[in-house]
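Regression test attached.
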Amino acid sequence: MTALTSPLGRLRWTFTDGLTLVGRELGRLRQEPGQIVAALVFPVIMVVLFGYVFGSAIQVPDGGDYREYLMPGLFAMVTFSAWLGVMTRMATDASRGVMDRFRSMPMARLAVPFGQTGADLLTGLPMLAIMVGAGLLVGWQPHRGLIPTAQAFLLMIVLRYALSWVGVYVGLAVKNDQVADAMVPLGLPFTMLSNAFVPTDGMPGWLRFLADWNPVSALTAASRELFGNPGAPSGNVAWPLAHPVTTVLLWSAALLVIFVPLSLRAYMRRGR
Amino acid sequence: MTDPMVVAEGLHKSFGNTHALRGLDLSVPRGTVCGVLGPNGAGKTTAVRILATLSDPDAGHARIAGYDVVREAGKVRARIGLAGQYAAVDEKLTGRGNLRMFGRLSHLSRRDAHRRADELLERFGLMDAADRPVVGYSGGMRRRLDLITCLILRPDVLFLDEPTTGLDPRSRGEIWDSIRELVADGTTVLLTTQYLDEADHLADAIAVIDHGQVIATGTPDELKATIGDRLDVTLEDPAALPTAMTVLNTLAGTEPTTTDADRLSVTLPATGLRLADIVRELDHAGVAAADVSLRRPTLDEVFLRLTNREEPVQ
């Protein structure tokens, strides 16, 4: 056992312990193959449901294919589901006493939040890949070449990671897995209130304002732009949708700047 | 005897207007079991959380194996194990998976973590269930897994916060056996419990806490001796009850309690009264007793007496 005293040793253990916790999440998945199947089937269902059920009735503004229009929205939706999963896992650990056990052990303190967000990133990637596969099957594709496509996926990953820190903080704050479970459905209106599935121009003014500034919209618009998919906003467009890539980066930076320190403080706080 | 392994001096802790601890003092010698008894809300869990570095005291200080729980928390954590009221293990992982994970997080090498997991599973009889997810374990098996998870690093001090609450008698007996085995290895144990027989069976010394302070300490026998022996009298005729009450009141100096229409019970002064004297006095007063018996008080009686003695402090 190496001491946690030197800064370098601490960093090393934060990394090693973080990896152990990533391994824990993978171990949990191995025990529950049903959950893997559900997680993988979900994107496919979304593509079919939205692509063919809604797609049969919705007109894309500039006359493009609805499924081409839809896929960036679904990518954004999957990205935004990240914080809910992290929140639930943090709250479950906190309510079951697992968090107390971690805190009472001689492990690196920062490993728990970093391990949890890292694990989410790793488990999120296959889900994104399946979504891409489902999209390709129904006729979606990126049109602007390798670099912009890679940039789009990178944006999703960056925002997903930033959002997972929101999950860490909220999970630590609610500390109760039942409350966390009850909060999960709140994720849905958040993603729906955006340009992910329908253009925002038809919404009443106040609702449109919310939808235009919703980070889900920015990520959707950025992906459409980088993939060369239809639905690029025209005319009088709100600032975030006119500069979607910058907006996504600003959102990610802001979320990290706010929620990383908040989460670390909440995790390290003693006195209860 | 060397320095005590667990020392708490004047611990204070408040949550808003609630004073959970008001000057708690505690000392547990190396290799002994200290049973901390107290009613719900007495401050037991708060005290354990402070000693296990999960919470900081508002005032006072505490040392584990000589290390301060606030300033040297890292060193304390390397020497303690904590098992809480609920099994703090990952339900989705297998028993073996849990032990390996916590072993790695205790900074054992992969090989050592695997070996230690197998050793503990074998020794505490969980090998058959080792590869099943914990979610399918019985309550007793979970507690046992929770307990052995604390043992990965062979801690000097083990904090067990109500380790058998909610378990059936058989599982409780198994946990007791495990705890006894640890103590035989030299581990110092601080055990909180609501079950007095648990403290009676396991503890070398008991600290009774109420309203955030220790109100009595001693071995189970010493505590029983402080409230004196108990006299139970069963009358042949319930009509003689008032007379018997008066006689016993005079002898014992305290009001007897009626436990039935024809039965009464009284605590005798610690100085002791001979059974023969009592029987003679009852006889003089014309009370016919079907049964007169003198017995040690149970720890429950000690506990009730101690914790009811004072008015609740506001």
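Expected vs. actual: identical. The radius of gyration of chain B is 24 Å.
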